[in-house]
């Protein structure tokens, strides 16, 4: 059974460019989470979806960040325009309601470097 | 304000000995607590969890203890192995809220 899939694994871009990160959750999972990890701030929740609907986007740092989930098997996180301070590892995670433990399963992450 | 705290940024333990990782929380409404393990260049992987109605959960070499009165939980790894070297995150959630509140992580180093 495939886990959470993220692409690309690494992204290097220049300041001002648009960046799109992609995520495919585990099949059947109804929650999807986007996180950002930095040395300074640790693991931060950016936004999460339930049944493709955004529930809480209070962690999205600025209007430059947007996320969509057009269907149950795909989500994107877009940064436009990108800035050097956006450099971080971005994780996607999914979970299934009703399991009792709220366990989230993470993808391998996308390491973003903005020059 | 940090609702979940891991006060030790790092911990070094001899191979074969016991590793004890600690986590404190402030919100008495948390119902579930989870430990995740993270290797470099990989996503966090779920390790073990405990419900607030229990005080202990064991899975092989890993045991999590929960002390609700002290709002404290700990992860015990016995015996510690070189492959246990990783960053360990403590996380908590309320029953009606599917978000996880994360600690800052503790880097565990197992010395041969």
What does this protein structure show overall?
The complex is a heterodimer of chains A (115) and B (112). Chain A has 115 residues and is mainly beta. Helices cover 0% and strands 54% of the residues of chain A. The mean pLDDT of chain A is 93. In chain B, strands 2, 4, 5, 9, 10 and 11 form a 6-stranded mixed beta sheet that branches. In chain B, strands 1-3-8-7-6 form a 5-stranded antiparallel beta sheet, with no helix packed on it. The model of chain B has no long low-confidence stretch (mean pLDDT 93). At the A-B interface, β5, β9 and β10 of A face β4 and β5 of B.
Spans where pLDDT lies below 50 across 5 or more residues of chain A = none
Categorize the overall geometry of chain B: globular
- State the order of secondary-structure elements of chain A, H for helix, E for strand: EEEEEEEEEEE
Instruction: Please report the two chains with the greatest interface, counting residues with C-beta closer than 8 angstroms to the partner's C-beta.
Output: A-B, 24 and 19 residues
Task: Please give the structural blueprint.
The complex is a heterodimer of chains A (115) and B (112).
Chain A: E1 5-7, E2 10-13, E3 19-24, E4 31-38, E5 42-50, E6 53-56, E7 65-71, E8 74-79, E9 88-95, E10 105-106, E11 110-114
Parallel strand pairs in A: 2-11
Antiparallel strand pairs in A: 1-3, 3-8, 4-5, 4-9, 5-6, 7-8, 9-10, 9-11
Chain B: E1 4-5, E2 10-14, E3 19-25, E4 32-38, E5 45-51, E6 56-59, E7 62-67, E8 72-77, E9 86-93, E10 101-102, E11 106-111
Parallel strand pairs in B: 2-11
Antiparallel strand pairs in B: 1-3, 3-8, 4-5, 4-9, 6-7, 7-8, 9-10, 9-11
């Amino acid at each position: 059974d495939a886990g959470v899939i993220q692409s690309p694994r690494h992204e290097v871009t220049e300041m001002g460019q648009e960046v799109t990160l992609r995520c495919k959750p585990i099949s059947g999972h109804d929650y999807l989470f986007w996180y950002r990890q930095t040395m300074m701030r640790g693991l931060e929740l950016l936004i999460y979806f339930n049944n493709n609907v955004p529930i809480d986007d209070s962690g999205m740092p600025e209007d430059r960040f947007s996320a969509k989930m057009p269907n149950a098997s795909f989500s994107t996180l877009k940064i436009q325009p990108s800035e050097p301070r956006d450099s971080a590892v971005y994780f996607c995670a999914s979970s299934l309601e009703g399991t009792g433990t709220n366990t989230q399963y993470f993808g391998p992450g996308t390491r973003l470097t903005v020059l | 304000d940090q609702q979940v705290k891991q006060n030790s940024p790092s911990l070094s333990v001899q191979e074969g000995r016991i590793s004890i990782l600690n986590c404190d929380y402030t919100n008495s409404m948390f119902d579930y607590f989870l430990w995740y393990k993270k290797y470099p260049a990989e996503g966090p992987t779920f390790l073990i969890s405990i419900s607030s109605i229990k005080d202990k959960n064991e899975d092989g070499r890993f045991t999590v203890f929960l002390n609700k009165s002290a709002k404290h939980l700990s992860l015990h790894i016995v015996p510690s192995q070189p492959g246990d070297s990783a960053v360990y995150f403590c996380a908590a959630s309320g029953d009606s809220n599917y978000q996880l509140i994360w600690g800052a992580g503790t880097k565990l180093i197992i010395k041969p």
